[in-house]
Protein: Histone methylation protein DOT1
Amino acid sequence: MSREDSLDNTLNIDTSLLMDEIKENERYFFGSTDYVTQDIILDMLDISENDVFVDIGCGLGKVIYYVNHKVGCKTIGVEGDDRIFRKLKENHSGYKKKNSGKSGGNVLVLGSTGAEVNILNRKIEDIDSIYDEILKNHVFEDKDSLYFYFFNPFSVEVLKSFVAKLVEEAGMNRFGSKKIELVFYYLTPEYQMALREFPLKLEQISKLNDYYKDEFEKCCIYSLR
Structure:
């Protein structure tokens, strides 16, 4: 059994669902972040159990369940494709069932608070409801951080709308004085150009395992100034 399959089994999810079917549709971009890459990215972040991690375009939930499992923080997955979301709900039920005997219904390896995992069937354009979900029942302390994770899931124009709304919400102090970071895996030049329009600071760049085969195999972390 591969490490990918083994960790899927540990989390009681199946992230191979629909892959063959989706790949047959050449107009549809679908990918997931393997667990090795996730470990590298998590090592780059100063993430703790008090933070919130939001995966924009979460697919079958591979990232949100692993981060919740490994770090013990609240995670939120946003997926706009109805077909994928139906399968995501199956993984969600499996993850909760696997860990139903644990505090908060989740497996926590750092022994923390039993933070929840939420999934949203939302188009990324439905920005207001996504932010409402982030803020619901969660009191941010100054030391806490809010992370947004992107794996090149949508158009540049949609990304710009999302980031513009994030800047607006932060300017209204809806997130308090907390740190806000945007984490991009496989960042294209088009995305990089778009991000220059906003008050973001590039904090880190890490070349990943296949960088010398593919120059976009890197993780870039931006903070909101």
About this structure: The chain has one domain: 3-224. The radius of gyration is 17 Å. The first strand starts at residue 52 and ends at 56.
